[in-house]
Amino acid sequence: MDPIRNKPPVGTPWARTADEVIEQLDVDPSRGLSTAEIARRTRRYGPNRLRHTERMQALAILSEQFKSVVILLLIGAAALSIVFGDLLESAAIVVVIFINTAIGFATELRAVRSMEALRKLARVDTTVRRDGMVRKVPAEALVPGDVVVVEGGDIITADMRLVTASKLEADESALTGESVPVGKAVAPLVAETHLAERANMLFKGTALTRGSGEAVVSATGLATELGQISRLVEEAEAAETPLEKRLDALGQRLVWVTLALAALVAGAGLVAGRETALAIEVAIALAVAAIPEGLPIVATIALARGMWRMARRNALIARLSAVETLGATSVILTDKTGTLTENRMTVVGLELEGGAVEIGGTGLDTDGDFTTASGPLADRQAALVDELLIAAVLCNNASLTADVAKRAPLTRDCGDISSTAQPVAAVGDPTEVALLVAAAKRGFSRAQFVDSLPEIREEAFDSDTQMMATYNGIPGQVQVSVKGAPEAVLECCDRIRTPDCEIDMDPDALATWRRRAEQMAARGLRTLAVGIKQEQGQAAAPYEGLELLGIMGLLDPPRAGVAEAIDACQDAGIRVVIVTGDHPATAGYVATEIGLIVGDQTPSTCLDARTAPDFKALTGADRKALLDTPIIARATPRQKLDLIEAYQQRDHVVAMTGDGVNDAPALKKADIGVAMGVRGTQVAKEAAAMVLQDDEFSTIVAAVAQGRAIYDNIRKFVIYLLSCNISEILVVALATFAGAPLPLMPLQILFLNLVTDVFPALALGVGEGAPALMEKRPRLANERLLKGAHWALVGAYGALISVVVLMAMYLGLTRFDMNEERIVTVSFLTLAFAQLWHVFNLRDNPQRWLRNEVVANPWVWSAVVFCTGLVLTAVYVPTLAEVLSLSTPTANEWMLILTMSLLPLLAGPPLRAVVGRGK
Q1: What is the pTM of this model?
Q2: Residue 335 annotated among the catalytic residues of the structure
Q3: Which of 30, 322, 506, 853 could form a disulfide with 770 if both were Cys (CB 3.0 to 4.6 A apart)?
Q4: Tens digit of pLDDT for each residue in 554-574?
Q5: Catalytic hit among 146, 159, 171, 335
Q6: Going along 485-572, which residue ranges are E strands?
Q7: What is the CATH number of the domain that holds 751?
């Protein structure tokens, strides 16, 4: 490896000024690198990654096929055939090896390529300035010298030297072990500064928790601090899911059981007087037939196929193990805004001292009237409305692309305003965008205050205080504008602005305003209170001595289809709990609208987390009451973690939605962390096991349904494979112990194993699943793939198939007076078709013969038709028939074959009702 790729291009960048680092990296921070320079530096420094999983080559996948126990057994059988002088059989076994290898290679190649393609969908992007334009690029494409724009919620994807920083804090626990966020600054430090104290650096693998800024990339890939510490291997081993491990362990156990049984059958054959070579070959063929070598391959295909189906439904799975966990989900803790609602905020009303104001228009429409109960706004009311809207514009980080302002900045007595609406595009938090749109309806925009009221300081929103503040310079003073949850802002106000003057916020007034906020929330509105004050300097504390301007009510309607998705969850035995930071009344209104609670339920259905006791300390009835509560409002990140843990301690499998930096711990803690792909931060997406690319709750439900279908499909094909393999063993073993003629020859067993095992099993594995799966309760997370009833069913199915084959053999001998070659043909064909028809016994509801998920699966029909063609080829193509020692059946023999082979299909449902107890 080129050593330059392991060495940072700038030594000790923290000890240099930002300008010195920029100069050494030869980049203009206002324009960034050019396209040609990026290509040159990419060649020089390589891709920005610590570990690279190379595209697995087809030859490597092919070579893996020859490492299986199945192939080794087949090679041993071919060698024995040569030793005993049967060159034709040896050649036939070589052909079987080729076919088995080809099937394994084709299926594994498809699975590997599917997973490689899915990994590409989950790439991390970084915002950079290149060729004078800000754009998003894949993190791997970063090069030293790239100018990166960062903000709270971003994952840092390379080592960077800060150029500008505004209230930046980073979580560097992944690198330094320090759990407290680290404040960032631009000033240079001494060269000996310890890693954890390099405040002017951002490091790969860490995350920004707040603030914004710009930085220049100083090191990428293995040259980063994380790269030098980890020295991760270039080639990563593919991680197996718990389900794949269980299947592999099952296969390994069956190998030894089968080898022991095969040895027993061989011994019995020798005692019965069979030729030594034939007895040994039959034993090896049985061993190969009994080993379900298709299990891991089909499982991988089923998981990969399910992930693609989820991706098409806008659910991107980040970890393969999450697919199987989804099927066991029993509780969904969901946010309200943007998941259950449209996340299209519109300010529809204001509560002011002296009355309420209604605002027309929806979405980004900047045309809307302001009216009161008595008609249009009076001049005195309009002045108060405008002051409130200007404060909301100043205390805001969103932006609208069109400048909709139509007049100069506010003077206290300004009267009504008319504005011409024009289409706009928004960037930023939907709530803050809605505030800007409301201001635009009165003719205000951020641009017109840049010079007259420049921002000199910001107190970022904090989930603990539930407020945000900005400091803007006005002649001789500083205006502090505050917005946040009404219950928080009201506590900070000692005065109230009226259209004519200021009045004191006494206890009666405080109670009145609290009641007005509750009434707005009860109408389903999200509420924000706005207050201001004037100070002499920016050092003043933001959240004290405020003057209340009013409360804004924002409407965010429930999403279409959410009510149906909630019903589907309840039918599936999945609890849905709203866990939100919003007002209890607002959350309760939405829950009622979507049918999560009914209108006459008691207030206990909604828990206000602000007044709740410590979740961890709750026991007995109090803890049960908490877990039975469908709405938890004003929840903090800590409370979300405690709630998840409480459910998990009751053996629930918990899915948790989130979008912000503060949600990341809960997303990691949950069994299935679900991040919002549209409005979610990169930190949340990295912490989650699933990313919703449309932010819709119904997508979670669809993913759970698919998770259940995948697990059910895998269970079906495992039962199918094992019952078919057991039938082959029993047919030969019972005939051998009874002293009857050998019903199947070794090559016939190998041929059947390839034909009837793999293709129908693959078809079952990729089915869409039964609709009734979402009408059952979730399975336990630690539930075994095959329970006792399933094992009983496997044995019963295997015995049933073997009995009908032996019955066909008996009837052929006694009723039709067949010779040994024709008896073998009848046994072979009866077993082949009985196993093919058996695939239809694996339907979810045995009482539904024609309308079920197996009959509706086109892959099953394709597999049956294809395998039928292969079986017929075996008896009607002379060369193949000679190799397999088969004869052409007569009409009577076909009648016997088809009649007997259909018996397991007809007897399967009643047998399942008795033995499998409905499984």
Answers
A1: 0.70
A2: yes
A3: 853
A4: 988 888 888 898 998 988 899
A5: 335
A6: 493-497, 502-504, 525-535, 546-555
A7: 1.20.1110.10
